[in-house]
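User: Structure please.
Assistant: Input sequence and predicted structure:
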Amino acid sequence: MPVPDYQSIMLPLLKLVSDKQEYKLNDVTDILSEQFNLSEEEKSELLPSGQSLLFSNRVGWARTYLKKAGLLDAPRRAAIIITERGINVLKQQPAKIDVRFLKQFPEFVEFQTPKKGENTIAEEIVTIDESSSQTPEEALENSYQNIRKALAQDLLSKVVSLSPAFFERLVVELLVKMGYGGSIKDAGRALVTGKSGDEGIDGTIKEDKLGLDIIYIQAKRWTPGNVVGRPELHKFVGALAGQGAKKGVFITTSE
């Protein structure tokens, strides 16, 4: 089954700790993953940032919301235990526990209400729509990814509008900034006039700071959608062979 959203995890989580014993959050996560019949692939699914596991993160947010509503307590770091309020809630046999359900508790309402002067973007995301399946962290990450994608498109449009010589210099500077050996001056020797003396090669960069191997570069500033085809790549391979080169990097604004 798909990884359940954090609101769907709340009731199973509360039921799991209903014996009033203290549980480690990692143990709870493992037990819940079995209850939801998650596959190994689903257990390994990551957030968009790739920094944490999706299911583990959602269990963490379910725990946070239940704690803010006073249904769970955290006697120590990464540990949880049910409270008397949590026991009383389970006695009501609710069909579901979600954000709407938790709003009956004043502490939770206070948690979701931004304080005066603190209504930042982050605060607005914490007060996420109660019908949303995304945790605040997921909403923030997805917003970040959307902004990053839009910025990338804007940068690409700007680069395409400039000259091919600018793009060639940009590629070399990028590789130097990424930590490859050599300097902008060394790498740009073939780029001074905006074209290389060797057909199909626009510049060189040292693979590491010791300069043990040279990578030859070809940069094509083509309009997106105008696909770089076999002839251009064959020409580049031929140029590499002419230099006795072992390695080359072909970079384009297209595909």
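DSSP finds twelve helices and six strands in the chain.
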